[in-house]
Amino acid sequence: MFENLTVSPSPHISKAHSTRSIMLDVVIGLAFPLVAAVIFFRLDAVFVIVTCVVACMATEYICNIIRKKPNTLGDLSAVVTGLILAFSLPAKCPLWAAAVGGAVAIAIGKMVFGGLGSNIFNPAMVARTFMAASLGGLMTTWVVPATIDAEMPQIVISADADAVTQATPLGWSKQAIKGEASIEKASSLTMPALWGTVGGCLGETSALAMILGGVYMLLRKTITYVIPTAVLGSAAAFAAVFWLVSPDKYVDPLFHVLSGGMLMCAIFIATDPVTAPLPRKGMWIFGIGVGLVVVLIRNVGGYPEGVMFAVLLMNALSPLIERMTKLVPSGGKKND
Amino acid sequence: MTFPGGVHPPDYKGLTENSAITPLAHPKQVAVMLSQHIGAICKPLVAKRDTVTAGQVIGDVDAFVSAPVHSPVSGKVKDIVLQSHPVLGREMAIIIDVDEETDRQKMPCPEKFDASFDEKQYSAEQIGEAIDKAGIVGMGGAGFPTRVKVDPSAKPEKRAIIVNACECEPFITCDYRVMLEWTHQFIAGIKLVRQISGCNDVYIGIEDNKPKAIEAVKQALANAKGCEGIEVCAVHTKYPQGGERQLIKSILGEDVPAGGIPPMIGVLVINVCTCAAIAEAVILDEPLTHRVVTVTGEGIKKPGNFYVPVGTSVEELIELCGGLTDDAAKVLLGGPMMGFSIADLSTPITKTGGAVTILTEKSITKAKFQNRETACIRCGRCLDVCPANINPTKIAHAVKFAHMDIAQQYHINACIECGCCSYICPANIEIKGYINTGKILIAREKKRMPK
């Protein structure tokens, strides 16, 4: 009876969780905006989401075969990437484009760096940037959510488009900055942006769903409050400066927080632990940086939305931030 | 009262917390290790086939940091051989065959101590000499010779004594039972330590999940004479509350310098069983030959707290506790967080080993070795729980890829090896194992290259 004893370093017990269970919690958190997307965009949303998730999982499976590594689909990280990518796409995004995006996210965003945990940039944002750069107009054709009534401001981007498309709240904000539209047009969309009855990406429209997902992940301790607070706080503060200086040109901070991908970024994208710094102090710097760059692009830059560039930029800085914020052991440094 | 970091593992104390300390009949043979403490290893003072009596000094060495070892039984020296040692691999041990005719089982004697004890009748020199002679070492695990620790002439002067009664390791209940059953002996020991070290403030740190012990000690302190300045502190229940640095942080709010020890800031931390042993050594002139050991875990048929001679083999203890269950998978000396898993059950109990824990396959289903290590997703949980406030995953990966310079830049030597990082890691990475390896490699490197 003494023959089957195991020997290993301590500790000999461990907490009952795994990468899979953490990713599962993220998926559950993402389920809130998923439900919202399906409510607002109906079958269009389902198709895009399923395509992205399947493309991500298939790519991961194939990459692991090519790399002669064990299958890692079980850790669910491909599902998370697929969902986040899908949420950053418009509902009428062609499915082939969504599939290409999913493949790019996993293959170029993650696997070439060595798989989960080794990537420098957020895979979904890599794919989103790739698509924005190569597919152009497809990525900015915002369909009106099915639930919107006809009186909402609508514009038809091209004559032969088969769907009614509409400028997003951030599009109106950009036009207001350029002086092409009145600021009221944009500000009137603040409350619709909270519920989700505005044009935009699948996951961006409903701020409320994002917040619910975020609260779930906070309660499950999947994420800490640090990065969301830093991103939203710095974005709101920076936006407030613009707003106070020129309120008839720039929208108010609440609008910035609720519209576009800001909440999605603060809760689901910037909190990706792989691409954010580890120490708390570093997380604050990282989050504040993301918030600043988003508002800077929105209010000064050429694009109406700046989430993906802000995240990628700060991802690149993340190792430097980590080096800057090296922890000091309790009791001070030991000289040896 | 708490410290930053730490984890909350399930405590499993229910298995043995109500089991009274039971003296076990002496085994037929004991193996007394010549190294049961930090410091110089003892030299045997007896030879093969010598007759020894219980309490006789059988190993000693003329060094400042060391402690003699005594025979716990009467009998005959069978051999002096290498024996499995839980920490050092293999070390010399004196094997003694117990002579059943002359050997008398030693019993605990808490009834010899009462509330009226007055430590003032002993001078500091007397106490120091008695501790030295009795071979007392820190019985909480580290095994630092107590004589050196309590030395009143050490600088800086001691300003506080902290009695470490946290017992934050899951499963273990030996200190808890000593506090409940040997309360006056325990307090007599504290008073003696206070007498020799010359400082007045004593804090007894007990985790707040042990209300009975807190109550018992408080009650006894209220009844006993001359206990002014001895205070019971109910500290937050969290692992590793019983780490001396963490306990000092919780009670005094101060940090011990990284890589340093509590005496550097004038604090003396002492364990419950050590206090009880000091009382026995000074007042009854009894050497440290027996100790309380918790034999516990779901893998043992009859768990309990036992009073056993030092040198009893783990195998013997297991048999006296009804043997292992069929699904027993891991035998630990110590608790599950910092204990050592052993493969050789002839390993003897030493002065420092307060527990034998047997884990079943079920209780370690989630333990590291069974689940494949997956990639670090940099979730940061190890940073959040690290009581030393270092970056465990960074250090572990530096060691994994042999970047010892990076490991040192990230303060590998500030690690207290509590294992919180490995416990919490969702990717099942043996973070503490890597850090341990790194420390050993760095120490070797330093030895090889003189400055």
Topology:
The complex is a heterodimer of chains A (about 325) and B (about 450).
Chain A: H1 19-66, H2 77-87, H3 95-107, H4 123-135, H5 169-178, H6 183-187, H7 190-195, H8 207-219, H9 226-245, H10 253-258, H11 262-269, H12 280-299, H13 307-324
Helix pairs in contact in A: 1-2, 1-3, 1-8, 2-3, 2-4, 3-4, 4-13, 8-11, 9-11, 9-12, 12-13
Chain B: E1 22-23, E2 29-33, E3 43-44, E4 51-52, E5 57-60, E6 69-70, E7 75-85, E8 89-98, H1 124-133, H2 146-150, E9 160-164, H3 174-181, H4 183-197, E10 202-207, H5 211-223, E11 230-235, H6 244-252, E12 267-271, H7 272-284, E13 290-296, E14 304-309, H8 314-320, E15 328-333, E16 340-342, E17 355-360, H9 381-385, H10 392-400, H11 404-409, H12 420-424, H13 431-448
Describe it for me?
The complex is a heterodimer of chains A (336) and B (451). Chain A has 336 residues and is mainly alpha-helical. Chain A has two domains: 19-139, no CATH class; 153-323, no CATH class. Helix content of chain A is 57%, strand content 0%. Chain A contains 13 helices and no strands. Chain A has helices spanning 19-66, 77-87, 95-107, 123-135, 169-178, 183-187, 190-195, 207-219, 226-245, 253-258, 262-269, 280-299, 307-324. In chain A, helix 1 packs across helix 8 (207-219). Chain B folds into three domains: 22-106 and 289-360, Ubiquitin-like (UB roll); 110-284, Rossmann fold (3-Layer(aba) Sandwich), CATH 3.40.50; 369-448, Orthogonal Bundle (Fumarate Reductase Iron-sulfur Protein, Chain B, domain 2), CATH 1.10.1060.10. Chain B starts with 21 loop residues before the first strand and ends with a helix. The longest helix of chain B is centred in the C-terminal third of the chain and has 18 residues, at 431-448. Chain B is an alpha/beta fold. Chain B is built from 13 helices and 17 strands. In chain B, the strands form four sheets. In chain B, strands 1-14-13-17-15-16 form a six-stranded mixed sheet, with helices on both faces. Chain B has a four-stranded antiparallel sheet with strand order 2-8-7-4, with no helix packed on it. Chain B has a four-stranded parallel sheet with strand order 11-10-9-12, sandwiched between helices. The mean pLDDT of chain B is 91. In chain B, helix 1 packs across helix 4, helix 3 runs parallel beside helix 5 and helix 10 (392-400) packs across helix 13 (431-448). At the A-B interface, helix 1 of A face strand 15, strand 16, helix 12 and helix 13 of B.
